[in-house]
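To whoever picks this up:

The nightly regression suite flagged Glucose-inhibited division protein B as changed. Nothing in the input moved, so I suspect the structure step. Input below, exactly as stored in the fixture:
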Amino acid sequence: MIHFQSFANAPLRLIAAIAIVLLASFLLACDGQTKAKQVSLSVLVASQSDYDDSQVITTGVVRRFEEPLHYWIEDEDLNRVEVFPHDKIAPYLGEVVELEGRFLFSATAGRRLTLTEIKQR
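Regenerated output under the current build:
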């Protein structure tokens, strides 16, 4: 006995299979990573909303304030971005570093960079 109902679902199954293959191909091609944008601290400060939630690479001198404890990098014009996690950036205090990480901006929390990589300059 032939079940006509199973033939009716065949086009949907084919479309679903094609969609899965296309999605898998896209994910493999993208490698799941977003390329970081090289950007100066002055540009990050001037265009902070444009870079919000972006992967960036920037350079500056590591500074610290004790109360409350926080670390940031700054350039010669005192453009600043706070850096997290503190324990990763602390050993570089006073040094020029190139940082890669996720940049976030909020009117209440300010400019923040969560590190993925640190290079001494």
